[in-house]
Structure formats: C-alpha cells, structure tokens
Fold this protein.
Amino acid sequence: MNFLIFLSNAVIPLLIFYIVALGLSRRQNIYDDFIKGAAEGFKTVLNIMPTLIGLMVAVGVLRASGFLDFLAKLLGSLTSYVHFPAELVPVTIVKLFSSSAATGLLIDLFKEFGPDSPLGTTASILMSCTETIFYTMSVYFMAAHVRKSRYTLAGALFTTLVGTAASVILAGLM
Amino acid sequence: MLNYLWGFMLLIGVVYGALTGNLPALTDAALSSAKEAVTLCVTMLGVMSFWMGLMRIAEGAGILSGATRKLTPFLRFLFPRLPREHPANKYIATNMIANIFGLGWAATPAGLKAMEALAELEEDRRKAAGTHSGRAEEIHKNKAGLLSGRAGEVHRDRTGLFSGQSKGVSAGASAMPQGAASNEMCNFLIINISSLQLIPVNIIAYRGQYGSVNPAAIVGPAIAATILSTAAGILFCKVADGRRRP
C-alpha cells in the first residue's frame, strides 16, 4: 500500500516533468502547444456545464426529498452481507447508464460524507475504474450497425463487478 | 437513456418530497445545486485546461504516437484474427491510448472509426464465407445426385465435403451474420468499458473542490483498480473468444 501512496503523490509531478522535459528536448514550442490544448480543455468544460447543472439539480432534488436515504436503507439489508456500503449502490448502478449522472451522485457523496471519508474514497476509486456500459455500447454498436451484441454485455458487467470489488477492497486498505 | 433517467430523478424527487413533507428543502436544493454546479465548473475549467494543455505537449512530443506503436503486440494478443495491416488496428490503438491518457474527446471518434472498420472486416468475411458456402452447396447437390449411383463414390464425396468445410473454417472464412457483433467488436468494447484511464483528473478536481486534504491520494489505488478491471476484461475476452468463435 505504501507504494500506491507514493505513486499517488508522485505520478502527476513526474508526468509534468517528463512531458515538459521531452517537449523541450525535441525543440518543440511547448508553451504554444500548452495554450492550444488548454483552450480546448476550456471548451470541453464549457460544453459539459449545462449537463452538470441539469444533473446536479436532479440529484440535489432527489437528496433533499429524502429518497436517496430511503433507497440506501432499502438496499442496505441486501448489500450488507457482501460488505458493500449501501450508500454507494445508487452511484454504482447509475454509472452503468450515465457517467455524468453518476458524477452528480459522487459529488453528493462528497458533500454528505466528505471526499476523504471511507465512502468518499471508495466512490472516488469506483468512479475512476469503471466506465458507463449502456451508453458506450449503444453509441459504438450504432456506428457498426450492430443489433446483436453477443457476449459484450456479460463481459462489460464482469469488468465492472471486478472494478467495484477492487475499489471497496483497496479503499479499505488505505 | 439520460432522458428518462433525468426525468424520473426529478419526478421521484418531487413526489417523494411531497409525501415526506420535504418540499421547502427541495426548492432550496434545486436552486443551490444549480449554483454549485457553476462553482464546480469554474474549478474544472482550471484543472481540465491545465491537463489538456499538458496532453497537447505530450502529443506534440510524439508520446502518444509512440505509445500507439508500442501497443501492437497487445493488439495481436487480443485480436488474433484481425489482419496485421487492417486499418482497424490503428483506430483501436489510438482509442486505447487516448483513453489511457484520459483524452475522452480524442478517444471516442477513433473508437467509432474502429467499429466501422471492424464492421467492414466482418462484411469482407461474410463475402468470403458466402462464396465458400455456395461451393459447399454445389458439392452437396452433386452428392444428392450420386446417391442413386454407387455407394462407394457417395462415401468418397461425402468425406470430401466435410474436409473441405473444416478447411474453410480454419482458414478464417467464417463470419457472423449481418447485424451481429464480431468477436473483435465484443473484445474491443469490453476492454473499452473496463476503463483504461490511468489518472482520473476530473475525480481529483471534484475531490479538491469539496475539501479533500489530498485530492490525488486516490491515484495509486485507482490505477491498481483500473489494471484489475482491465485484466478481468482481457481474461473474459480470451475465454469468450476461444469458446464462441463463429
């Protein structure tokens, strides 16, 4: 686990150093490149902003109504004996359908329990190691004009299950 | 998908809130959440701009294209039936590398191109398989005609038919019917969905915004979890690919 903590603290600084040093050594105009990329990143965030407003309002409403607590209590009895925290069930399920909706729920968890709490840490790892299944499958298969997806869904659910289990275990070790 | 998900979140919220008498809190939550989304986006503007800028340098320095080339042995392992020079190789590699570096906007177009290229490959396979089965039918007709003839000749012809058929399959002429995903498509999507992104910049940004002492603390465990889920995806693909070859 010590190695993972070291990796967490060092990976971004090392990456910055590596990329900038390599760019300079290749006599590349790194500052211009940076500005161009940053402008693109800026536009990306502006594009997702309306989505995020819509979804955070929906999650906020759901939280204030008391429904999320009700759902967690309801599912808690089911998930407690596989040692999966009930509060994470909504985010895990919603992530299968929509990444941005899951982001709304993740932020809700951060607000309720704090990002450094066991729940916050688990949710952070969970969101980092899984991808939305149904959205990805529908978009990609549409491009290939495919209607029968065969073993894709089973495989995708399996990787999500492993990622979810790994998140709970790894967060427990932290 | 999001249409119903979003709609029902709001409808359930309002109905449940009315039943539990939480309507005033609900009004407050709707307004404050909207404001909060904007605050969050301001943080995200900084982090994502910085990250994308850095990645642009990496792209210019040839790190991305270098990594794409290094992916070749992995592609041979994961897609053994995909011809070496097929254009799908390049698109798949670009998609995977972009995903690893967290460049979703670059990953999706390459991924869609990869799916189109794989669809063309399957179309070619169908054509190849089509001519083959046509030949098999002819042989079959001959066989039926010979049935009235000498038994020995029928037997010889039948064994000839079977050996011909099995040779065709092993030569890779078999294909999925139209509208069904090929093994390559299934494998590609499973690996894609297993999540390849190594550094979850957006999650780090959210954590920072909500007061984490060390927002990047989850990077190590996240990399470990990503590797585990991807390994599980590869394992699943190898088993399914081996078992369910068309």
Summary: Chain A has one domain: 50-173.
